[in-house]
Design a protein that fits this description.
Length: 254
């Protein structure tokens, strides 16, 4: 039997989907179907404007809240941006940083991702740091080099106590929103290398860091992925928009 060393974390990234009414309905359905009654920690990441309605719909639920992004500066003339402090004040305990859509569409570098993660830690918000290779990088055999370089650059200024509060998400870009998933073995191979690198960088604290897999996780592939030794949970996009699919993925942790 595969006994998990770390409590599984299932995080739903809603991206730019849902109205306030739809968000409240989805949260109600998740609670009604017992999303927080399984062994996993469950977190949802709605768009910024839906954080307050989602929080209101959650009542006393143990489902956690994440933001999808933040700025690294404390405050200032950054039109359209939201600070780590504002993320925390809004009720988020997690925040995704460096999602491949941010890297590809908004020019975020790993250095920026690291600064955002640091800003979040200063507000006691757990960063979910995303890394992952493109299809061209995978096909040219540079997956591990790319992923480790992203990780190193994002975590370069982190101390041992910082890392214990971080979550890493390995999300191969070619698998996000495409319906293509890394095989459990391919995902596990990358997760094992990420785990080894974290332990090399932070030998005393990296053991507690959860490394999630993301990229077309669905009810029918979740169990096999989550059974892998170094996969500590999932970052779920499309399938988190439907209560039934998201619950099935949460159930796959147990
Ligand atoms: C994501 O947005 O992080 C993601 C993994 O999306 P999907 O599950 O739709 O591939």
């Amino acid at each position: 039997m595969n006994v998990k060393l770390r409590k599984p974390l299932i995080a739903g990234n809603w991206k730019m989907y849902k109205t306030a009414r739809e968000a409240a309905e989805l949260v109600a359905a998740l609670i009604e179907r017992g999303a927080e009654k399984h062994g996993a920690e469950v977190v949802i990441a709605p768009p910024f404007t839906l954080i307050a309605p989602v929080l209101a719909a959650m009542g006393g639920s143990r489902i956690g809240l994440a933001a999808q992004n933040c700025h690294f500066e404390k405050q200032g003339a950054f039109t359209g941006e939201v600070s780590a402090e504002q993320v925390r004040e809004a009720g988020c305990t997690y925040c995704i940083v460096g999602h491949s859509e941010r890297r590809q569409l908004f020019g975020e570098t790993s250095e920026i991702v690291g600064k955002k993660a640091k800003a979040l830690l200063s507000e006691a918000v757990h960063p979910i740091v995303c890394v992952g290779e493109t299809l061209a990088e995978r096909e040219s055999g540079s997956t591990l080099k790319v992923v480790i370089a992203q990780l190193d650059a994002a975590l370069v200024s982190f101390g041992a106590s910082d890392i214990a509060k971080v979550v890493v998400a390995y999300e191969p870009v070619w698998a996000i929103g495409t319906g293509r998933t890394a095989s459990p073995k391919d995902a596990q191979d990358v997760h094992a290398v990420i785990r080894a690198r974290l332990l090399q960088m932070f030998p005393t604290t990296a053991d507690t860091v959860r490394v999630l897999y993301g990229g077309s996780v669905k009810p029918d592939n979740a169990k096999a992925l989550l059974a892998e030794r170094d996969i500590d949970g999932a970052l779920v996009g499309g399938a988190s928009l439907d209560a039934g699919s998201f619950i099935s993925i949460i159930e796959a942790t147990g």
